[in-house]
Amino acid sequence: MLTIFSSFGQTYFIALFGSEIRETFQLSHGDFGGLYMIGTLASAATLVWLGRVVDVFSVSTVAFWVCAALSMACLAMSLVSSVWILVLVIFGLRLFGQGMMSHIAMVAMGRWYSAERGRAVSITSIGFQIGSGVLPVIVVSLIGLVGWRTSWLLAAAMMLFVAMPAIVLLMRKERIPRGQLPEEDITNNVRQWTHKEVLTDPLFWLTITGILAPSFIGTAVFFHQTHIAEIKGWSRELIAGSLALAAITTVVFSLISGFLIDRFSARSLLPTFLIPLGLANLLLGWMDSPMTIFLFMFLHGVSNGISATLFGALLPEIYGSRHLGAIRSITMAAMVIASALGPGATGWLIDIGVGFEIQLVGMGVYCLITAVLMYVVALALRKRSMAVSY
C-alpha cells in the first residue's frame, strides 16, 4: 500500500499533468524542468535527516503523519496559484511521496523480516509497478473528465480517506518490540552501524556508485522517450506499448531476486544487477530496429527488478537494522538526487551537441565497469562478514 500510493509523488505521475501545469503558469519545458529539479533536490536534502524518524518512532506513527502530509500536498497542488508555491508543492509531493512513503516501506521490511527478507522486499516492490501500470490510465481519463485540479483533489481525498486508514490499520502492530533487534541479526553477529559510521565506510560509497545508476539512467531514458522516438524513427505508440514489458519483467525478476537473496544473500547478487542494464543501453545506443526497444525494456526490467529488491535487503544485511532508518535515508536521498539530475544532465548534453545515442553507449559502458567494481565490493563485504562472525 505504501509503495502503490508513493505514486502521487513519483515523476511519471506528476508528469501526467505537465502540459496543464505548463499552460496554466505559462512555463516552457525548460522552466518546468528546472522548477521540478529544484523541488526534487530540496526534498532529497530534507530526506537525509527526516528519514531518521523511523528509528525513533513506530512505523505506524510515521506512516500516519506521512500519509496525512502527502494528502495535504495533493490538496495544495489542486489549489496552487503561483510558480513559487508550485515549487513548494513539488517539494512536498517528492518528499512525502517518492521519498518517505518508499522509505518507510523498505525500512519496515528490512527491520521486520530477516530469514525471508528478500521475498518480503520483493513483494513490497511490486506496489511500484502496480501504481505505474494502473494509475496513468485512470488519471488521463480523469483529467479529460474533471480537469487537472479536480484530479489532484480526488488524489488528496483518496490518500486521506482510503490509503491512510488502510495503511495505519495494516501497520498498527509493530513486528519487532521497540528497542530490540531482530533475532537473526543477533544470532548472526551483525554489527549495528550508526549512520555516521556508514558515512566513513569506503565500501558504502563504492556501493553507491552502483545504486545510483538505475535511478539516473531509468529517469533519463523515460524522460527523453519522445526524443528517442524521433532520432530512431519510431512511433511514440511503439515505446508506450513496450512499457508493459518492462513492468512485467520487473515484477517477475523482483520475485526471483527475492528468492535468490534469501537463498544466497543480498551481497552475492550485488555484481549482477547492472549487467542487463549495461547491455540494454548499448543495444539502444547502437541499434535502430524497432525490436530494440523491446529488448531494452526487457533487460531494463531485469535490472530494475533485481535492484528494487536488492537495495531493500542489502543495507540491513551488512549494516544491521537498529539504525536502518537513518542509513537508508542517505541512499534514498542519493537516489532521488540521481533521478533529478538524470533528465537535466542528459538534456544539457543534447543541447551542446552530444547525441543521446552516444550518451546511452557511455551509460552502458559505465554500468559494465561498475558491475566489475560491485564484484570487488561483494568480495570485500563477504570477508568483513566472515571476520565479524569469527
Short account of what is shown:
With 390 residues, this protein is mainly α. The chain is 82% helix and 0% strand. The protein contains 18 helices and no strands.
What's the layout of helices and strands?
Blueprint: H1 2-5, H2 11-15, H3 18-25, H4 29-50, H5 59-79, H6 83-112, H7 117-146, H8 148-170, H9 183-187, H10 195-199, H11 202-223, H12 225-232, H13 236-263, H14 266-269, H15 274-286, H16 291-319, H17 324-351, H18 356-389
Sheet of most strands? none
Q: Please write the string of helix (H) and strand (E) elements.
A: HHHHHHHHHHHHHHHHHH
CATH superfamily label:
MFS general substrate transporter like domains
- Can you tell me the overall shape? globular
Q: In percent terms, what proportion of residues is strand?
A: under 5%
CATH class value:
Mainly Alpha
Q: Which fold name fills CATH's third level, the topology? A: Growth Hormone, Chain: A
Total number of strands: 0
Number of helices, counting only DSSP H or I runs of 4 residues or more: 18
Question: Which short descriptors sum up this protein?
Answer:
Growth Hormone, Chain: A; single chain; 0% strand; 18 helices; 82% helix; mainly alpha; 390 residues; globular
Description:
Helix content is 82%, strand content 0%. The relative contact order is 0.15. The chain is globular and about 60 Å long. It contains 18 helices and no strands. The protein has 390 residues and is mostly helical.
